[in-house]
Write a structure and sequence with these properties.
The chain is 76% helix and 0% strand. The protein contains four helices and no strands. The structure holds zinc ion (ZN).
């Protein structure tokens, strides 16, 4: 993993917990535009976060992913590695 990619993967993770600054956001977006690995990593993180949020919001963790969400999660995780 390139040094820039390590920084971008950290920003991808941070962006789920806080609003990125202007410079961070610009650097992040520009890198995602040119790097498919980081784009996939960002998509995976968002997908996992959304799945976890869905489960957390459901009383007693009895939520079920829809077929579309399950397929999307499965395909994305299957297609992408190295995140
Ligand atoms: Zn990258």
């Amino acid at each position: 993993m390139k040094h820039a990619c390590k920084e971008i993967s950290r920003l991808a993770s941070d962006s789920l917990d806080r609003k990125l600054g202007l410079w961070e956001k610009l650097k992040f977006r520009m890198h995602l535009f040119i790097c498919v690995n980081c784009r996939n990593c960002d998509n995976n993180l968002k997908l996992i976060r959304n799945a976890l949020d869905l489960i957390e919001k459901t009383k007693y963790g009895q939520a079920r992913l829809s077929d579309v969400q399950r397929d999307q999660l499965h395909q994305t995780l299957k297609k992408n590695t190295g995140c």
